Amino acid sequence: MWPNTSFIDLIGIKFPIIQAPMAGASGADMVVATCEAGGLGSLPCAMLEVEKFQAEFHVIRQRTNSPVNLNFFCHAPAGLDPDRETAWKNHLAPYYTEYGLDTATPTPRISRVPFDENMCAVVEKLQPEVVSFHFGLPARVLLDRVKSAGCIVICSATTVEEAQWLEYRGCDAIIAQGAEAGGHRGMFLTDEVSSQVGTMALVPQVVDAVQVPVIAAGGIADGRGIAAAFALGAAAVQIGTAYLFTPEATITPLHRAALTAAHDDGTALTNLFSGRPARSLLNRVMREIGLISDKTPAFPTAGGVLAPLKAKAEAAGKDDFSSLWSGQAARLGREMGAFVLTQTLASDASERLTAIAARD
Amino acid sequence: MWPNTSFIDLIGIKFPIIQAPMAGASGADMVVATCEAGGLGSLPCAMLEVEKFQAEFHVIRQRTNSPVNLNFFCHAPAGLDPDRETAWKNHLAPYYTEYGLDTATPTPRISRVPFDENMCAVVEKLQPEVVSFHFGLPARVLLDRVKSAGCIVICSATTVEEAQWLEYRGCDAIIAQGAEAGGHRGMFLTDEVSSQVGTMALVPQVVDAVQVPVIAAGGIADGRGIAAAFALGAAAVQIGTAYLFTPEATITPLHRAALTAAHDDGTALTNLFSGRPARSLLNRVMREIGLISDKTPAFPTAGGVLAPLKAKAEAAGKDDFSSLWSGQAARLGREMGAFVLTQTLASDASERLTAIAARD
Questions:
Q1: What confidence tens digit (pLDDT) does each residue in A109-127 have?
Q2: A295 vs chain B: nearest CA distance in angstroms?
Q3: Which residues of B touch A331 (CB under 8 A)?
Q4: In which band, very low, low, confident or very high, does the pLDDT at A309 lie, cut at 50, 70 and 90?
Q5: What are residue A18's DSSP bridge partners?
Q6: pLDDT reading at A279 higher than 70
């Protein structure tokens, strides 16, 4: 049924569709619905305590026997830099004043722990069928343990060089994350946002450069995009933004409203919210402070200074300081459950692949 | 043979492939080869005097009876701004010193005339089958005359809003120019580079928003990209960078060498060379001065200050100050003549469309 079955054969799933792990925006419900529909559901573990993702996994396992993906971050965690944080807070001080906040109040800590010994031990115990990484791979010894546990390992690449690096280190499949994608860029061998590559150009170049199956991501939100990904040589797609329109998405009403009103050119890459470049719908802080600042504290700590502003603004019904993760194809999103969405994406893609061969 | 024939039927050509007009990089030879192969050849007229493009058209017409596209710019021409130019020259003064150039020497004038009364009169006389515009459309009265002369009118859009604007004003087909594309962004309702949309996301959103045929551009350089464009709903593609690898391309050996060595992430959008954002392979001036400067003189005059540096550096075998226009898929380029390239692109696309339906 699919023109390239290397990925679905590798994983043992029906549809070549990965529901993207979206930390803070998706949980067990979305994973289960996607898996039961025939796709690969992904649980984002980067913002969860070990006990929490273990519990979530058990919930998922009770509700589906299909393969599941656990996703982790592999960033080098930055230590606290109080001087930098203070300078950043001073930079944003006018907003603190506007909202009656005291800059002397201690900055909330934002924690995103990279894949470590503890998480690895739990993965070995849970033995999920798939483990995916973002921001590169964990240390060799941890990676070997994940693979020895029988997990298929996949990871995001934003350039051909990153894809080759991942294949050389044993990744079983590679996500070619085009610049259209929402949320954090998976970049780990470069920090140059301006030269990030669009999906249409990236996918075939990665396909030419590696032997393992390539998963296309970025700007894909309907059957047309999935068919296009296969035309480019991909063996699967990873879709995020389209799943934010499902009731399973654990996003704020403000984020949901912004997505519903999104335009094609309404997003940009910014490092304001976390310290790393990520694609968000444009909002006030992005427009006023600038998209990429050299003053933000390092990932993942940057969000701490914005957190009190975000809380105050959201309470007032404003998304001025919220990270509104979205890819460039939000406009193609449709409100439906994750189960129906997964099946609709698959059937639309199948129809599209047939239609473009029909030569009407 | 093609899944969507609306564009080839409209123009009366065999293959849904437009050779992109590339001012300074292509002329009659490339047009003729493309047209004779079954595609639509495009003569870039923006940097040519009226007499010159008229003469070129006559050369083309003697060598092919197939439809031909004449391409023009529709920018609002900036007047000279001596203060701004002097400030820019002072900004680049260290390079002048390095090359033993005197900043007091008058700056060369760079002329790119927008579509005007004179050009329109020649178009009415020549009656090319297609006229394409970049940077928006000419004044209503001129556009009406072009259409009354029987020319099919097409124009680039970089956003859905621009596409709708063009359709409302009577464009017969619209080029959805994704962010991967090389050379000048056709943007005319926005100047926000950071929110420009990738081809994968842009094409289906434009297809949904307009009734006229959509031509996909940006990151498409082989049969896979063409097949993907059709999957997204396009009725044709416009391809530039791949044609720079043909002997018909009138580019410098330095530019050709840089293209041959290109990597997927080796380009960026910059306004340094002309005053408007355009995608170029990264070189010294882009790395050192920054990609987008608010100090450049307005389009099209900005190149004047760089011109003496470019001449000196190129004479020394360096591309440090040269505009090295390229899209993000240069790596997919193959050295072959424009005739063979056009036919190869068409047959590869056809094979690809068949292969992805084959469900092996």
A1: 887 889 999 999 999 999 9
A2: 18
A3: 160, 205, 208
A4: very high
A5: A40, A238
A6: yes
